[in-house]
Design a protein that fits this description.
By secondary structure, the chain is of the alpha+beta class. Helices cover 20% and strands 30% of the residues. The protein has helices at 11-18, 31-37, 59-62, 77-83, 115-119, and strands at residues 2-8, 22-27, 39-40, 65-70, 97-103, 111-113, 132-136, 139-140, 144-152.
Length: 155
C-alpha cells in the first residue's frame, strides 16, 4: 500500500485525489490498530466512537459492514445533492490528522450499495445516499491501495 502525506488548507485541495475512488476515513491515531489487526473491522458492537456523528443506527453498521465513502459518481447531480451531509474532512475539526484508506477497484464488486436501504425501506437507519457504501465484514489491509495521511496546514 502506497503512503502519501498531504497538507491541505481546504477540502477542495483533497477532492481531486478522491474523485472516482471508494475509501474509508479514520483519525490517523487509529491506523496502528488497523495495521496490527490487518483489517478495518466493522463497528458492529459500537466499541469505537465515530467522529462522523452518532452511528448507533447506521445502516451499514447494523449490517456488520465497514462504511466507506463512494466518490465514483463524484460531481453527478445525485452525488452533489448528498455529498455535503458527510465529508471526509469533517473530522479534522476534532483530530489533527486523518487517514484515508483507498479500496482497490478489484474489490468494488463486494460493496453493498446504499440503495438497499431504500429498497428495504430502512427509514429509521442512517445512510448518505449516493455517497456511502458498505463492505461486509473485515476489510483486509491487502485490499487497500493507498493510505493518504492528511493534515491541515497551520497558518
Amino acid at each position: 500500500m502506497r503512503e502519501i502525506y498531504i497538507e491541505i488548507k481546504s477540502e477542495n485541495e483533497l477532492m481531486p485525489l478522491l474523485k472516482g475512488k471508494v475509501f474509508h476515513v479514520t483519525p490517523s491515531v487509529n491506523f496502528p490498530q488497523i495495521e496490527e489487526s490487518g483489517a478495518i473491522i466493522p463497528n458492529q458492537n459500537g466499541l469505537w466512537r465515530s467522529l462522523f456523528g452518532n452511528s448507533e443506527n447506521g445502516f451499514f453498521r447494523l449490517r456488520g459492514c465497514v462504511s466507506l465513502f463512494d466518490y465514483r459518481a463524484y460531481g453527478s447531480k445525485e452525488w452533489e445533492a448528498h455529498a455535503y451531509k458527510c465529508t471526509p474532512t469533517q473530522i479534522l475539526r476534532q483530530t489533527d490528522t486523518i487517514s484515508i484508506l483507498v479500496l482497490s477497484e478489484t474489490h468494488y464488486d463486494k460493496l453493498e450499495p446504499w440503495i438497499n436501504w431504500k429498497l428495504e425501506e430502512k427509514w429509521s437507519q442512517r445512510v448518505v445516499p449516493h455517497v456511502e457504501v458498505g463492505y461486509s465484514g473485515k476489510l483486509k489491509m491487502e485490499y487497500l491501495t493507498e493510505h493518504l495521511i492528511v493534515k491541515v496546514k497551520s497558518s
